Structures are given as structure tokens and as C-alpha cells.
Amino acid sequence: MRAMTRKAAEAAGDMLQGDAPDVQKDASDEAIGALIERFVESYRAERNSSENTLRAYRIDLGDYAAWAKRMGVGALHPTHRQLRRYLSQLEQAQYTRSTVNRRLSALRTFFQWLNVEGIVDVDPASALSGPKQPQRLPRHIRPEDMVKLLSVYTKRLDEEGRDLRTPSEMRNQAILEFLYACGARISEASGLELTAVDFEAGQCKVLGKGGKERIVPLHDLALASMRTYALLGRPQLVQGKDCPYFFVSTRGNQMGTDAMRKMFKQALSAAGLPATITPHDMRHTFATDVLAGGADLRSVQEMLGHASLSTTQLYTHTTPERLGAEHRRAHPRG
């Protein structure tokens, strides 16, 4: 976003105070841009949202403002019909339903903020509805494929029992085991702090969406991989640096999500698995597997950090064969 001129900044400040209706009607590109930036910063402070979410809101609202300018629509004072036309044109341009709904979410939140701040008197986005999303079942990684993936960086010993893996390979194995062990998001793995892992209790503290903390248990295999990395691999990577994060890069800094995704793609290739599998599929697979193993839905909801139980219920899908077996096992006349 371009740097604001002093005049644009003053105009945006007046609009935030709600005492400049004439400026609202004649808002410049820079004044609107300034408002978008103030909204994003406000959203950051209130929701503790991820940088990805904030970047998406900034881009989506900027695109909306550009559309409004092209169409001669007042970006801060559109009618409900004009906003409907904007969404309709997105669909005609063959944007995906998820993209259209994301932009709708940005508009709703933005106009709600404008209304609360007294910058606008009417919220034209409150009654908008987006295209219905087809409900897609989460993708489950087959057990045999999971074994292949988790074997890529597994321990390799020499004749004297010493681990031949590099520090990075120890770390990679620990990341993969961690993702599958607790259904963590890739962002949560990147943000995992060293002090958050409790090897004695067999659990760790994860910082999820919106800054919400949750305690997740870890099974013995994951703990073993993470302990090996923590004791042997991580010290060689940090080289004395004071880094608070558990998973670190080859330079001893926090290992970012992009680097983790790149590592994951390399592991898929080495395992001979499709490149379409994602780290998030590990989360889906964890949820499906623990539910199939007998875990109750509420417990899985807590482990995944879902705000709504309906989100967790997506993982209750099953195959007809398993459904038949469960019916025979559970029914009194089975």
C-alpha cells in the first residue's frame, strides 16, 4: 500500500472520529487506503489474527476499493444492490466460491467496523449472503502411505548404533511425527515454543487461531523423535543462539511455515507419494484415525482446537465397510 500523504492521513483521522460526513462522500483513494489499514490494525489487536488473514483482508478490501472506483460507486457508501453486483461479478469472473465468500467476509467485517466507529451510518453488507459451499470431506491419508511418509527421515544407525542422520533430518522427522501425533496446524508447529513441550507429562502447549492455547497429548513415538531432535539435532542447528522456538532452521532461527511446507513436499517426493497431499491432510488424518479408534467427539474437538463441534463432525465420515462393521458390532441383533 502506498505511503499516506499528510492530507490523506488527516482525512482518515477525521473519518475515524465520525465528524466529517463531507469527507466520507468525497474520500480519496489514499483516505480509503488509510481506513483499510486502520481497520486491519484494529482487527489485529482485537482478534490476534494471523498475518495470512490480515494480508488477505488488506488485499480483498483493496480490490473492492479498486472495483468501486472503476464502477463509480462510493466505496464507503455503496448500496446493498451495488455490493450484490460486486459479488455477482466475482462469480461471473469464475472466482471460486471460497474466494467469493472470503471477500464477502472481509466486506462484512470492514463495514461493521466502519459502522461501530461512526464512520458510516448504514451497514450495507450486513444482509449479504454468499454462494453456498459444497461440503467436501477431509482427505484421509491411507495407513500405508502414512508409514511411507514417516519413514523418510526415520533413524538410520551405523554398526556402532550411532544415528547417521543430519540435524535437519532429525528435525524433519520430529515435525512429521508431531503433525500426525496431535493434529497440529503447520502454523502451530512453526510457532511451537521450546518451553511448551513437556516430555515428562507427554504433552505440549499449542498456540492456535486467535491466540487460543490448548494442551495436546503426544504419543511415545512422537515424543521419542522430538526428544532425539531436541537433544542431538537442535543444539547443532542453533549453535548457541537464543531461539525460543522448538523447530529451528539451519541458521538457528524459527522455522517458518513456508520452509516446513517445502520440507513436506520433499518428503512426499522421497516417499513416492502424490504432491497433492498437504500438511493439513495430516491434521485430517489424525482426527479421522483417533475417532475411528474410539475417541469421543468432544475430546477430538479440544485436541484440534475447533470452536464449533460441527467442524469436528466433518471427521465422522467413514467407509461403507467400516459402517457395516460398526453396525454389526453395536446393534443388539448384530
Q: Can you give a write-up of this model?
A:
It is a single chain. With 334 residues, this protein is mainly α. The protein has 15 helices and 3 strands. It has helices at 6-16, 21-25, 29-47, 51-71, 80-92, 97-116, 143-150, 167-182, 186-190, 220-238, 257-271, 279-292, 297-304, 309-312, 320-330; strands at 197-198, 203-207, 213-217. A 3-stranded antiparallel beta sheet has the order 1-2-3. A hairpin with a 5-residue loop joins strand 2 and strand 3 (213-217). The longest helix is centred in the first third of the chain and has 21 residues, at 51-71. The radius of gyration is 25 Å and the shape is elongated. Residues 1-26 have low confidence and may be disordered.
Q: Topology, please?
A:
Elements: H1 6-16, H2 21-25, H3 29-47, H4 51-71, H5 80-92, H6 97-116, H7 143-150, H8 167-182, H9 186-190, E1 197-198, E2 203-207, E3 213-217, H10 220-238, H11 257-271, H12 279-292, H13 297-304, H14 309-312, H15 320-330
Antiparallel strand pairs: 1-2, 2-3
> What is the general shape?
elongated
Mean pLDDT: 82
Number of DSSP-assigned strands: 3
The description of the largest β-sheet is: 3 strands, antiparallel
In short:
It is built from 15 helices and three strands.
